[in-house]
Specification:
Strand order of the largest sheet: 5-6-7-8-10-12-13-14
CATH superfamily of the largest domain: Divalent-metal-dependent TIM barrel enzymes
Structural class: alpha/beta
Shape: globular
Number of strands: 14
Distance between the termini: 37 Å
Low-confidence stretches: 1-5
Bound molecules: D-xylulose, cobalt (II) ion
Order of helices and strands: EEEEHEHHEHHEHEEHEEHEHHEHEHHHHH
CATH topology of the largest domain: TIM Barrel
CATH class of the largest domain: Alpha Beta
CATH architecture of the largest domain: Alpha-Beta Barrel
Number of domains: 2
Number of helices: 16
Mean pLDDT: 97
Length: 443
């Protein structure tokens, strides 16, 4: 299959990224991600379902609150929106193909510039670019992991979309949401994502939180019912984040989202898309969020990136911490992987990384980190005492009175009687250092 599906090569200095193993000193090769290697019964490719994201990689140019971005893209040289959009898509599919990414994700406005279009005009633009995307997907075999609507950048959504206190604004957002759902279905998208955007509040003084949350649930029901009617059988994912852009985001973390979907009857259709840097902003670890999702049967998908230990905003850096990846992959493997989703690189190269090839290096590092984490986690689960040691901490619940307690067979008086008989219980070490050393032994 030819790598270039358009008529222009955007990344001429980089070829197809191959697996060369950890002894290779080729920066443009995988050291760990051997797509066809079988681990725990599936290939790495099947376990991880890697995806490229459109917004950071092909739209974001490194802008920050202090100025525009220094990154320059050849596809921006086209004067008209359609020319820019098709050139950007040629570049994107060239990149996905060279990287060996089987999936991609987008916001509606990433695909083609909105430029103050009316809903009807934007719908026509989306028709145009999704026709082109169908051809690119067909030619490359790359699939759409999920689509979403950007209902947070345009100033009209400053007070939110589905939680906006003003019904006409909510309805205007719905018109855009419908177009994004239609585009996702047209392209065979396997999932549809709702990241909160500005669904949250800045001050409670002007906010009726109950009304906003009731409306948000209605918004999600309405979207889900429409998509199902159109024949969409994929998952809906809510992407938790605790803050930024609003002070308090309603989808704070996975536990909050689990409560919300259960309260409002959305639990059969909605799972979570967990982003690493959102987990850490919520003062959780990534693995904590994965575990909460797995235990609630909601582990849908992952937005892979990392934050920064020294600051407290969403830096969206490429993942590179092996210890954290191993701990996360222990949860991932024990949960049996993701329900319908994949590992999407919602990550951006640094503002100062201005060579076109830098986006390859970021993805190579991220894919190797996840692959290496998964391979090591599998070894730990199979070869070490890790699971046995963890189980042993709970051994007293496996039989006798402990088991009777878990089965609800003891009332409080009976439980208290046992407690009196026990006297001062034996001190049992938590052994954290031993667990940590097991992880490091396999890295
Ligand atoms: C924002 C974020 C988004 C979502 C999609 O922090 O992660 O890019 O992934 O809207
Ligand atoms: Co994200």
């Amino acid at each position: 299959m030819s790598i270039i599906t358009g008529d222009k090569e955007f990344f001429p200095t980089v070829g197809k990224i191959e697996y060369e193993g950890r002894d290779s000193d080729n920066p443009f090769a995988f050291k760990w991600y051997d797509a066809d290697r079988v681990v725990a019964g599936k290939t790495l490719k099947e376990w991880l379902r890697f995806s490229g994201c459109y917004w950071h990689t092909f739209c974001g140019k490194g802008h920050d609150p202090f100025g525009p971005g220094p990154q320059r893209f050849a596809w921006d040289n086209y004067a008209d929106a359609k020319g820019r959009a098709t050139a950007k898509m040629d570049a994107a599919f060239e990149f996905f193909t060279k990287m060996g990414l089987g999936y991609y994700c987008f916001h509606d406005v990433d695909l083609i510039d909105e430029e103050n279009s009316s809903v009807e005009e934007f719908g026509k633009k989306l028709d145009f670019i999704t026709d082109y995307a169908q051809q690119k997907q067909q030619a490359s075999g790359i699939k759409l992991l999920w689509g979403t609507a950007n209902l947070f950048s345009n100033p009209r959504y400053m007070n939110g979309a589905g939680t906006n206190p003003h019904f006409p604004t909510l309805a205007r957002a719905a018109a855009q949401l419908k177009l994004a759902i239609d585009a996702t279905i047209k392209l065979g998208g396997e999932n549809y994502v709702f990241w909160g955007g500005r669904e949250g509040y800045v001050t409670l003084l002007n906010t009726n939180m109950k009304q906003e949350l009731d409306n948000f649930a209605q918004w999600l029901h309405t979207a889900k019912d429409y998509a199902r009617k159109q024949g969409f059988t994929g998952n809906f994912f809510i992407e938790p984040k605790p803050m930024e852009p609003t002070k308090h985001q309603y989808d704070f973390d996975t536990a909050t989202v689990a409560h919300f979907v259960n309260k409002y009857g959305l639990q059969d259709d909605f799972k979570v898309n967990i982003e690493v840097n959102h987990a850490t902003l919520a003062n959780h670890t990534f693995q904590h969020e994965l575990q909460v999702a797995a235990d609630n049967n909601m582990l849908g998908s992952i937005d892979a990136n990392r934050g920064d230990y020294q600051n407290a905003w969403d830096t969206d850096q490429f993942p590179n911490n092996i210890n954290e990846a191993v701990e996360a992959m222990l949860v991932y493997l024990e949960a049996g992987g993701l329900q319908g989703g994949g590992v999407n690189f919602d990550a951006k190269t640094r503002r100062e990384s201005t060579d076109m090839e830098d986006i390859f290096l970021g993805h190579i590092g991220g894919m190797d980190t996840f692959a290496r984490g998964l391979i090591i986690a599998d070894e730990i689960l199979n070869k070490s005492d890790y699971k046995k040691l963890r189980e042993a901490r709970y051994a007293t619940f496996q039989s006798g009175q402990g088991k009777a307690f878990t089965e609800g067979k003891l009332d409080l008086a009976e439980l208290a009687k046992i407690g009196i008989e026990v006297g001062e219980p034996e001190q049992i070490s938590g052994k954290q250092e031993l667990f940590e050393n097991i992880i490091n032994r396999y890295i």
